[in-house]
Structures are given as C-alpha cells and as structure tokens.
Amino acid sequence: MSGYYGEGEEAAAATPTVFSLKSEVASLRNRVKDLEAENARLSAQISNCRCKCDKIEEKLDASSVENANGECNHNPTSNKVNQSRTNSDYDGKSMNHHSRRYVALKVMYFGQRFYGFSSEAQMDPTVESEIFKALQKTMLLIGDKKEIQYSRCGRTDKGVSAVGQVIALFLRSKLKQSGTNNNTIGRIVEEQQDGEIDYVRVLNRVLPKDIRIMGWSPVPTDFSARFSCLSREYKYFFWSDNLNILDMETAGKKFVGEHDFRNFCKMDAVNVHNYIRHIISFEISPFNMSSDGHQLCVIKFKGTAFLWHQVRCMVAVLFMIGQGFESPDVIDALLDIDRTPRKPQYLMAPEIPLVLRSCEFGNLKFTCSTDAGQALRVHLENECRAYHLQAAIFYEALLSCLPLSNVTDSDLSGKGILHNGIVKKKVPHVPLMSRPTEPSYEERRTKLESMKGFAAESTSV
C-alpha cells in the first residue's frame, strides 16, 4: 500500500528526529552551564567592585570607629595593605570623575625629626611629603600636583615646628561641582560645610603623631597660602637664666618697622634680590612654665614676611646682648647697610625652639567637626604627657649625678654647658663689628655673573 508506512518503517523514520532532539537538549544544557559560569564570574566582579567602592567611601567619610586616642580600629591586615602602598601606587587622575573643592588646611607639626617642611630639598622625611602620603592614602587628591593648585604659607627649616602653618589645594568633595568638565578648575557651588568630608578627622587618622591637621576652610580659587597671607608670627622659646631681658627688649624694638635685614639672614643671592622686610611687632614675655627656678620665656616676632633664617639670626644677636657681650646699639649698626654692607660671621640660634605660631588671612576661619576636635585635643594632651614623662626621666638622671664640689657657674660655662641650646665656651668674645665678614650681596652677584660668563664661553668653545 503505497503512501502508507508499516509499523516498522514508521519507527525507523522517527528515530533520526529523537536523536536530533536529544542532541539539541544536551547542547542547551551545556550552554546553560556556560551561562551560569559566566554569570557567577560577572557577579563576583560586581561584588568585588562594590567592596572596593565601599572601602573607598569608608576612607573618605571616616565612618570607622575611633578609639579614645582618636585612632581608627581597622583590621590589622588592612592596615598592612595600606601601609605597603607607595606614592607611585596612587594616580589622582583616576579620581577625576569626582567633585572637588579648593580648601585651606591649618597644619601643626613638631619639626625635630623632619628635614624642613618643603619636600623640594630631596631629603626625607619632610612634613610636606608626609602630608601628601596621607592625602594619597585617603584618596582625597584629584589630579597631579600642578592640577591641585597647591600652595604653602611658609617653608620652615629643618627642626623648626609650627602650630599655624597653612596650605591650600583642591581636594575631593561631596559637593557637586558646577560645569561638566571635572578636569578644569571650575566654580564650586557654595554650600555650608555640613555634610562635607571631615577632612580633619580623615587625615589625622593616617598622619604620623607629630603632624596634625588643626582645621580647614573653603577658599576661593584665586587664594594663595603664600601670597594671600597678611602676616606671619613666629615664637622663639628660651630660658631667661641670667639674661638681661630689658636690654634684649630695647634691642628687639629696633627691629620693628621696614628695614633691610641682609645682615640678619642667610643670603640667597641667586633667588632673592630684595632684603627689605616689615616687622609689625616684637615682644618678650614669660611663658607659663618653669623648671627648678628657671623661667621659660618667649620672643614673639610678627611680620609680613621673613627671609631665610632671619628669626634665628635676630635671636642669636639678642642673646649676645642679653649676656652683656654686645650693646643694643649693635642692632642699629647691622641694620645700616651703608655702614655695614657685609654681614659679620656669627652662629644662628638653634632651630628646635622656633615655632611658626600663626598665619593671618583676613576673614579666613578654620573649623573642624566636634568629633575631630575632641580626638585632636585628646591626642595633643597625650603627647604633652608623653614629653613630660621623658623630661622626668632626664631630671631623675640629673638628680642621680655625682655631686660636683667647688665648681662655680663660670666653671661650668667653660666646660661647654649649653645656654639656650648654644654651647658656651670659655673664650674671649669678639665684638660683632670686629669679626670677619661674609661677601656682600653685590659681591655675590658679581661672582655669579662671572661664573655664568665663564660657563657660556666654555659652551661656545
């Protein structure tokens, strides 16, 4: 019967279709497994990205719990990872999609272990290098050093401290930036500081204990920590001992006003051509601290700007006057450039007692959150106590010294005893105006020009 299949023939015809379906089902099952594996891989990537973002936000918002000392209770393993990061690991340009704002930071540091504030001296550690490490760890930097419009108020020297140093730069912000191009310095929408990143708390959690951010303030984009500063105040601490404070006050008041201070600085004839500076005020007063009958005093200089080592040179001459080696009139002679065109050779006062006390910027007001302020206060109190404990140990050693019989104070001064950090040796004092002198500014410039001419001739040959 043509046109009809028998039972055997129909089964034979259906067999290829079943095999085809089974093969397709197996293929689909394999495809499902592949898709499930791909889904698991993508889910893991998404989870990892979220984890990283959460960690970044945690750092930026300072949301982790602080202990009584203001230090963060992080996972120790996480700390090791953070500490192992180097400067080259951080690329501020990768943060360019975030908003940013121009801010000023008020900085305190104890300068004894630092090679000055500025990192341009190619010596480590510096205060500036430690601050930038902290900015990188907290991922607050956006862009490189040129793009953040960085400026600093002063470049304190090796060993010098500060409680009122000021820097300005662009930092990451929670506020929205006007305009769509985050690579340019746009106008930041002015809002209250509430809701902003707690810059003081975030940075102080990662800075070394001898550096602290004291406060922050939003500033306009044309602000410069250096050139917008109206005045700077330095303090120099010293033990009054047998110094004639009245003579020192008489001499110090001669500094007030506008003078050429080339005989009271370390001359930099290459970069500095104007040595006239304006001293606004001078004062010597007792400090609320004494030791074994010795009164601690402080000299305060306030001026619009200062030359390299100017304060330490002025203090050194004041000490000579206080000891009776020089008359207060020697200040007049050194300020008279026609009379004294070359600086007499003398040692500067030690750097450790010198502090940059404050920098004045008109209506600029530095603030910090209540939590950050409390943590800062606790930290500074603990540091004060730690240094008092160290002083107690040295004092205990002093009490344990064998008694010195038939030794007078004059004998001790001849043995190299320190007087305000300066070793006093039993040698005749040579009056300042009779000492060998350094080259004058004009002589230094002439030498520099001759060296340039010689180098040019050598190049042309």
UniProtKB/TrEMBL annotation:
Domain Pseudouridine synthase I TruA alpha/beta: 253-361
GO aspect biological process, one term: tRNA pseudouridine synthesis
tRNA processing listed as a keyword: yes
Biased composition (Polar residues): 67-87
Region feature (Disordered): 67-95, 433-461
Cited Gene3D superfamilies: Pseudouridine synthase I, catalytic domain, C-terminal subdomain (3.30.70.660), Pseudouridine synthase I, catalytic domain, N-terminal subdomain (3.30.70.580)
Keywords for the protein's UniProt record, in alphabetical order: Coiled coil, Isomerase, tRNA processing
A GO CC term assigned to this protein in UniProt: nucleus
Domain of life: Eukaryota
Extent of Basic and acidic residues compositional bias: 441-450
Pfam families for this protein: PseudoU_synth_1
GO molecular function, one term: pseudouridine synthase activity
Keyword DNA-binding: no
Chain coiled-coil ranges: 18-59
Family: Belongs to the tRNA pseudouridine synthase TruA family.
HAMAP family assigned to the protein according to its UniProt record, in alphabetical order: TruA
NCBIfam families: hisT_truA
Protein name: Pseudouridine synthase I TruA alpha/beta domain-containing protein
